[in-house]
């Protein structure tokens, strides 16, 4: 392919990606415009974040609760999928299949629960330092 052919060819994908990037940039400019209230987030360094201990306890509780919910959901999804896919229960095949989904759900739930718990603790309105 010649150099001039490569330079002059445009694809819909590259134009679409450029349009999305421009849209995200315009959205950021709109959100951070004057009078939007965004400056109050950055203009008050005297506000204090929750104590580190609270964040650690929230993360641990979130990890534990998320792991339990994820494991139960994974085991249920695995057993339903095993029934629908007609996985053989010979020598516990369907049980291993469900356990695989349960362990995956446990891992995803633990990570998601920890992140969600810390985010919920830090998103509450902060008190001014006195």
Which stretches are low in confidence, meaning pLDDT under 50 for 5 or more residues running? none
Radius of gyration: 25 Å
Oligomerization state: single chain
Let me know the number of strands. 0
Descriptive overview:
By secondary structure, the protein is an all-alpha fold. It is 72% helix and 0% strand. Helix 4 runs antiparallel to helix 5. The termini are far apart.
Question: What key phrases describe this protein's structure?
Answer:
130 residues, 5 helices, mainly alpha
Summarize the structure.
By secondary structure, this protein is mainly alpha-helical.
Layout of SSEs?
Layout: H1 3-8, H2 12-31, H3 39-42, H4 52-84, H5 93-123
Helix pairs in contact: 4-5
């Amino acid at each position: 392919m010649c150099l001039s052919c490569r330079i002059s060819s445009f694809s819909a994908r590259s134009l679409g990606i450029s349009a999305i990037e421009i849209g995200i940039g315009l959205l950021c400019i709109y959100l951070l415009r004057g009078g939007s209230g965004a400056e109050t987030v950055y203009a008050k360094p005297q506000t204090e974040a929750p104590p580190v201990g609270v964040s650690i306890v929230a993360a641990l509780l979130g990890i534990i609760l998320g792991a339990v919910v994820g494991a139960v959901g994974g085991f249920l999804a695995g057993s339903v999928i095993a029934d629908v896919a007609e996985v053989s229960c010979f020598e516990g095949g369907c049980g291993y299949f469900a356990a695989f989904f349960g362990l995956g759900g446990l891992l995803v739930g633990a990570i998601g629960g920890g992140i969600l718990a810390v985010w919920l603790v830090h998103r509450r309105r902060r008190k001014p330092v006195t």
